[in-house]
Amino acid sequence: xxxxxxxxxxxxxxxxxxxxxxxxxxxxxxxxxxxxxxxxxxxxxxxxxxxxxxxxxxxxxxxxxxxxxxxxxxxxxxxxxxxxxxxxxxxxxxxxxxxxxxxxxxxxxxxxxxxxxxxxxxxxxxxxxxxxxxxxxxxxxxxxxxxxxxxxxxxxxxxxxxxxxxxxxxxxxxxxxxxxxxxxxxxxxxxxxxxxxxxxxxxxxxxxxxxxxxxxxxxxxxxxxxxxxxxxxxxxxxxxxxxxxxxxxxxxxxxxxxxxxxxxxxxxxxxxxxxxxxxxxxxxxxxxxxxxxxxxxxxxxxxxxxxxxxxxxxxxxxxxxxxx
Length: 324
Ligand code: XIL
Known about the structure:
Bound molecules: (3S,4R)-3-hydroxy-2-oxopiperidin-4-yl beta-D-xylopyranoside
Shape: globular
Number of domains: 1
CATH superfamily: Glycosidases
CATH class: Alpha Beta
């Protein structure tokens, strides 16, 4: 019987990964040992984003990203690339700038070509576009890319990404589409139409950042995944975490474990999900308390001292059942 998540995931042919930070890899032994032992796949939490790799116009800095790539290679882990086109994590020169449609397109073109040619396939897939849709369906109209370019930016950036590296898989990634509903329906229609137009999109990423109070209905999630898969798209759960609202009790930690098993069970039962990545693995380093202004915490599989939690046991057991 496999004794780590990594062995269990390998046995059932699933890519099972985590977001990670180059600083933690460099500075904490327990961090890098746990990461290499438990996961067969990695994504960088921030250091491949626009502001990290192109802090000034035309000046690219890949030092942190290259450190993550080197770690992944050393430990024979696959990498997801995250992310090329997003409304967040933009450097000041983009965020505070005003650009014509032609200028904005040229900025994206140069960014995409430079980044993808630099990594040259070391990440086997990329989130080309992240969170382009609004929470109520429709476009995220406040995105600067949408304001400057309009909806055409989306097919255009996928075409450029494909031209820059025809061998990697190109993903659209977003949150709030786990269940059928207005956002998921909008995304489905958008991807269906783009694929019909021959736009090179190979997969869709479902972030799965949802608190423990969101017990996801298995059949509804499966039906939703199924329709995307029927379009010919690969599916990844890209940023799974299950945060707990304070005050945190052992009963809530048990519910979190159950919900981890539920969500992973959905991925495995769908036969459409080829990769599941957590947005971090230790409660020592998670974006949740800051993002929720302290309302939620403890979303991951290991506690702040790198001890496996109930959620870890539930995930391991779910993976082991699949491999049998
Ligand atoms: C988050 C990082 O984890 C934080 O460190 C950062 O401050 C903000 O971004 N959706 C995404 C991820 O696609 O890139 C985000 O990551 C979390 C939400």
